[in-house]
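Researcher: Checking consistency across runs. Here is DUF2388 domain-containing protein again:
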Amino acid sequence: MTRLRLLSAAALLAMAANASATSFIVTTDSIVGALKATSDATSDVTSSFRDDKIVLAARDDAASFVASEGDIRGVKLESALDHIRHQAPQLNATDAQLAQAILTL
């Protein structure tokens, strides 16, 4: 009887470990997918606005915005964000993502 319980416990433990590993893989895939989407969005911004004077002028304001976690919003950054959203309306990026993209230029 104890051998049956031991085998049952081992089988349950194996199934639990497998389920845990599967959920970890799904979670990891979701996070990587989200990061890739963010990276693609910022890559699109940096390639199309690399020579844009309005966007380049906002680099200092973008640095302040990122460093203050969104508390400091300069006039040049606001102008650049409006300009980017007007030029690329299909882009679904937050202000923080756009500010980080501006810093990579």
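Researcher: Does this match what you'd expect to see?
Model: One thing to look at in this run: The mean pLDDT is 75.
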